[in-house]
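Q: What structure does this chain adopt?
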Amino acid sequence: MNLQTKLILPAEWSFQDAILLCWPHSSMDWQPILKDVEPEFEQIAFHICQFQRLIIIAQDKHHQAYILDRLDSINAKIDNIQWLIHKTNDTWCRDFAPVCVKSDHEMLALNFEFNGWGNKYPSVLDNSTNDAIKQHNILKCSLNTIPFVLEGGSIDTDGLGTLLTTKACLLSEQRNPSYTQFDIEQLLLKQLGSDRIIWIENGYLSGDDTDSHIDNLARFCNTTTIAYASCEPDDEHYPALSKMENELKQLKTKDGNPYQLIPLKIPLPIYDDEERLAASYVNFLITNDLVLVPTFNDKQDAINIAKLQDIFIERTVIGIDSRNIIKQSGSIHCLTMQLPQYTISDEF
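A:
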């Protein structure tokens, strides 16, 4: 690729070749709740493959056959499913899958380093996934390795060069300790084509072990709209989330206008034993035809689905029960990664 070519990170609502989903397995941390969480994975897979290609990462051929059996039993559109056989440490492929950027003429897949959210968890197998994707000829574009720790869930974009992220995550000393904020901005400018980075200083969710990934807190719905997590004043998160809300209210689009802000109230507290779980409706996935939103058997489920449907008027917004998924500190967006148009090989 010509070094002078202008790169841009596509927005999630841009047309996609496929969605990547890594299936849970008994050798992972999912083992104690595997039978409870797999139906939630099935629903994610079922809805995605109704309309577009879904690439499922299975641990081995036996695992592949097992998953295929389960999806066939719920009448999933099997013809839209393809497979990558590769062992991983866990299932959160948003954070270790390739980040794809585009120029006027071609795509480029970026292989950032993944270190288990700041060396919290084993990550060697996860970090080898992008090399496996390349070796299996899934990509039609080049894969460039970037010696910098970056998780896909830590950034969000409007597709016009504006990047949304949190200081708590990207400035974490456990990720890139030798990089200053200025260094990080210059790297993201070069590698992702960003020309404006919005650093969110406030906001967190109890039970989130990612150091406040932006995809649980605030997301672009289109170039002028941001959905964000909010809560009632008596919730423990209120001081942090209300400060984040005030930050968002001060933001302007590139045209100098305030963003349309869509508050998505988090559900009543959900606990696993005594630990509160990071339940957020902001962790939705935008696909070509649908928006898949985590739900929690809470009165806010229907309210927030309706709010998002008013924004995503050209897509159908569907709730997916995620009460078991969040027991491992993530949700639908964290489990998936979109691969934009012109990324996937015609021969795969």
